[in-house]
Design goal:
Blueprint (H helix, E strand, L loop, with lengths): L1 H6 L2 H10 L3 H7 L17 H14 L8 H24 L7 H13 L7 E5 L2 E6 L2 E9 L4 E2 L4 H4 L3 H9 L12 H13 L4 H13 L13 H6 L6 H15 L12 H14 L19 H12 L3 H6 L4 H5 L9
Antiparallel strand pairs: 1-2, 2-3, 3-4
């Protein structure tokens, strides 16, 4: 800053101090505060924002000046979001090239393979020290248990070449868990179920087991198809809604006579009872019409203010486009 003060004019110094050197703004552009960011946030200029504005103004707004907020919202919702959603699906399918995170991981795997085992020091259990090849006296700390590294590139994708090198030369060995055999598991189930038996049944089972050892092991039998079919399964709301939609689509077909389906009378009565039992309140409030803008602006503003209590967000966003909403093509608004 001192060098800039010696070379720059006083007006430039005043401009930088006023608009760029405040604490709130400095956190947005200074490299001191831009740490631990992902690879999608790693940009040193505002060129990505400028590029987005260029796409919005040139591709979607057709280089035309926008005068209404409702037109901008319509463009963002109906054109911009579907366009980038399709781009995202194409990228997920591999049609837009390799993902930046996938490409960075492939680069890290290649760089991690260049390390040898002598470059890594095993400190304690899951803790390792990996040297920096450009500065051999500097080391980075890798914690495999927490899966972290102290290098600057680790926050990009939560993975770095030092972790890749440690995983390559110090492979983790997981102990195998003891598994019970099928006969042992069945025996344990039979032993646990024997506690619930009555004395007479337990005595009979002990006698039969003495004569026949194989009879002491009771293998549980799976339920038959008849037993499964007899168990009532309550229908889900999604299944009922899908069936109603299919039935409604079939009944709208041309040529279908009212008496062709006798069960429609039963369905009609059942639907009446369902409608009485369910809540009829909708997600959106009931609609309220607005009168046309035929008089001066003050009367129109009063009618819009009456809607503010019920539609605060919608009225606020559409206040600039009142002429578009309240007038038809045959009326010209009076401003």
């Amino acid at each position: 800053m001192d060098k800039i003060k010696l070379l720059a004019s006083p007006k430039l110094i005043e401009y930088l101090t006023t608009f760029y050197m405040t604490n709130e703004v400095m956190r947005m552009w200074s490299a001191i505060y831009r740490k631990a960011r992902s690879i999608l946030e790693a940009c040193n200029t505002n060129m990505p924002i400028e590029a987005w504005h260029h796409v919005l103004k040139g591709k979607f707004l057709k280089h035309k000046r926008n005068h209404r907020i409702n037109h901008l919202l319509h463009t963002l919702i109906r054109e911009v979001i579907p366009y980038f959603s399709l781009r995202q699906r194409r990228q997920d399918g591999g049609f837009e090239g390799q993902d930046v995170e996938v490409a960075k991981r492939a680069e890290i795997e290649t760089e991690g393979a260049t390390y040898v085992k002598e470059d890594i020091e095993h400190v304690h259990k899951k803790l390792y020290l990996v040297i920096l090849k450009s500065r051999l006296e500097h080391q980075y700390e890798v914690d495999i248990a927490m899966y972290t590294c102290t290098c600057r590139e680790f926050p990009l994708i939560k993975y770095c070449k030092h972790i890749a090198a440690v995983q390559h030369h110090f492979k983790e060995v997981f102990p195998s868990l003891p598994l019970l055999s099928h006969c042992e598991s069945v025996q344990q189930e039979s032993d646990s179920s024997a506690d619930d038996l009555t004395p007479s049944s337990s005595a009979n089972s002990s006698i039969s087991s003495a004569t026949n050892p194989a009879a002491s092991v009771t293998v549980p039998q799976p339920p038959t198809l008849t037993q499964v079919a007899t168990v009532p399964q309550p229908p889900t709301l999604t299944q009922v809604a899908m069936k109603l939609e299919r039935a409604a689509a079939r009944m709208r077909r041309p040529g279908l006579k009212p008496g062709a389906v006798p069960s429609l009378d039963i369905l009609n009565s059942r639907l009446d009872s369902v409608l009485e039992e369910t809540d009829d309140s909708g997600v959106l409030p009931s609609s309220q019409g607005m009168r046309r803008n035929t008089n001066d602006w003050h009367e129109t503003k009063e009618s819009e203010n009456r809607l503010t209590t019920r539609f605060p967000l919608a009225t606020r966003s559409l206040a600039c486009g009142h002429a578009f909403l309240s007038c038809d093509a045959s009326h010209t608004p009076n401003f």
